Amino acid sequence: MSSQASDASAARPVSVADLQAAKARGERFAMLTAYDYPTARTLDDAGVPVLLVGDSLSDNVLGHDSTVPVTVDDMLHHTKAVVRGTRRALVVADLPFGSYQVSVEDGLRASIRLVKEGGANAVKAEGGGTVVELARRLVRSGVPFMGHLGLTPQSVNLLGYRVQGRDADAAEAILEDARALEKAGAFAIVLECVPADLAGRVTDTLAIPTIGIGAGPRTDAQVLVFHDLVGLSEGRKPRFVKQYADTRAVIADAVKAFTAEVAAGDYPGPEHTYE
């Protein structure tokens, strides 16, 4: 969203309608993940309009090797912290693996917990197909729903980490799922690791915003994992990641300076000591 629009609406929380209006005006916006109070407060103060409590909590914060192990209770705990740190941003909470695959009713229960107990403004789930019915039921129940198509990390054991929708049939399936999610009432759809042309087709087809991650420049918005953005994540990064800061090095330097001063007896000094 434009800085002018952001300034005008700074006194009130961002709504689903604001995001849809941004698309109608041709204004792009950003979404970032947040998993705790201080990060949420920092990103909210910086003007990020949408914060995602992603199931990427699993590998970026809890130390697992994928998003699969994270639970509803994990997501609830961290959603509460993010909500406490947020004054304006729209907070979206991921439905973790296992919380909606067995039945729509399971997905409804988990979603209601994330909204009622966690304070989330909306929930997100991966995939099309049966997820369309979950989206429909959630919207009818008053829970805003964000879709997620393309690479769906919860299905890593089936799909692996690779670009989706490269052949004509797969591309058409993603487009049809996007249309179905929009018809079911989804207010936005994340497109992850799909060819830029396909993401552009989906974006042009839908009236609701598309949010890209590894989907090229033609989506209505872009999302990154906060830890990737600031250089706190480990290992090889996907092609779409742009690191904007090396916070890990800054923290390491601060810690080394502290430990050196402690070893030398320079900290605490007189200015840090009570008489």
Question: Secondary-structure map with pairings?
Answer:
Layout: H1 3-8, H2 16-25, E1 29-33, H3 37-45, E2 50-53, H4 57-60, H5 72-84, E3 90-94, H6 104-116, E4 122-124, H7 131-140, E5 145-150, H8 156-159, H9 168-184, E6 188-192, H10 196-205, E7 210-213, E8 221-224, H11 226-229, H12 247-264
Parallel strand pairs: 1-2, 1-8, 2-3, 3-4, 4-5, 5-6, 6-7, 7-8
Helix pairs in contact: 3-5, 6-7, 7-9, 9-10
Would you give an account of this structure?
- With 275 residues, the chain is α/β, with parallel strands linked by helices.
- Helices cover 43% and strands 13% of the residues.
- It contains 12 helices and 8 strands.
- The chain has helices at residues 3-8, 16-25, 37-45, 57-60, 72-84, 104-116, 131-140, 156-159, 168-184, 196-205, 226-229, 247-264, and strands spanning 29-33, 50-53, 90-94, 122-124, 145-150, 188-192, 210-213, 221-224.
- Strands 1-2-3-4-5-6-7-8 form an 8-stranded parallel β-barrel, surrounded by 7 helices.
- Helix 7 (131-140) links the parallel strand 4 (122-124) and strand 5 (145-150).
- The chain starts with a helix and ends in an 11-residue tail after the last helix.
- The model has no long low-confidence stretch (mean pLDDT 93).
Report, as a whole number of angstroms, the end-to-end distance: 52 Å
Query: What is the CA-based Rg, rounded?
Result: 20 Å
- What's the rounded overall pLDDT mean? 93
Described by strand count, sense and barrel closure, the largest sheet is: 8 strands, parallel, barrel
Element order: H for helix, E for strand: HHEHEHHEHEHEHHEHEEHH
Question: How many E-type strands?
Answer: 8
